[in-house]
Amino acid sequence: MPSGRDLIFRQGYFGEPDAFEALAVLLQDIFSIDIRPMQWLGGVDPTCMPFGYFDAQGRCVANFSVFSMPLAVNGRTMRVAAYQSGAVSPAYRGRGLYRDLMQRAFTHARQTGHEADILLTDKPALYVPYGLRSVRMFGFRGAMPQSSADGPACQALSLDRPADLHRVSAMLDIRQPVSGRFAVTGMKALFLLNAWWQRDEITLSYLSRQKAIVAWRQEAEKLIVFDVVSAEIPPLGEICAALGAACSCVETRFSPDRLQWAEAEAVADPHVYLMASASLAEQLEQSPVGFTPLAEF
What we know:
Blueprint: E1 8-11, H1 17-31, H2 38-41, E2 49-54, E3 60-73, E4 76-88, H3 97-111, E5 116-120, E6 132-135, E7 138-143, E8 154-157, H4 162-173, E9 182-184, H5 188-197, E10 203-207, E11 212-219, E12 222-230, H6 236-243, E13 249-252, E14 265-268, E15 274-277, H7 278-284
Parallel strand pairs: 4-5, 12-13
Antiparallel strand pairs: 1-2, 2-3, 3-4, 3-9, 5-15, 6-15, 7-13, 7-14, 8-10, 10-11, 11-12
């Protein structure tokens, strides 16, 4: 047991306003992120189970959360347990709280029937004892594809506007996984929160002819496509034409198997540190895969 006799263990407290606010304060102090917007962006993922320790004043001093993340892997949907929000207040470190909460979360995942585990971290050695191993992530880069599609036909979206938020939310409900090789399926709350956090770096545009939402950015002569939300993923050539991007190079942060883009070459992605349980890692290592930042957790 951890040295936490002066603390109160709690779990499943996302529905309690005071506890949620306490967790938000902890994560903002440790990671400089604010999870409060998820409450008006569509709500907290109902599968998420937080485990934490609170002090006598109601402050959250340690947390580790697990949630269900459906993944498309080689054309099959897997029910995977994903872990996030692992944090301990500096004054309470060295007491075994983090390890205790991790073990509770991993036990919960097994008891609720998840077939594999996944997490993002820049400290992979911490999770090796739990049977996880690093999986190398890739971006995909190539020449701008040619297209016979008409010129630009897109509309910039802002999650500050209720109509745009509704459109994005509705399309997330019917989206096709951006890749059949490896992609998150669904996960509306995760996409919306990441899009909100990254709104100054990533543009969301609605492509009217393709009925698709594209998350993208242009850097000099390079177009970066971070994600595509559509009931049927359109070819990359049509996406580029609709965006009106005058670039010589395109890069995606996800596997491009649905983009009809034969020129793509895999390039190691230094932005993502992904770990997975052995069985899932073996599948992901069969050929290069990427991970969109709109699904980061």
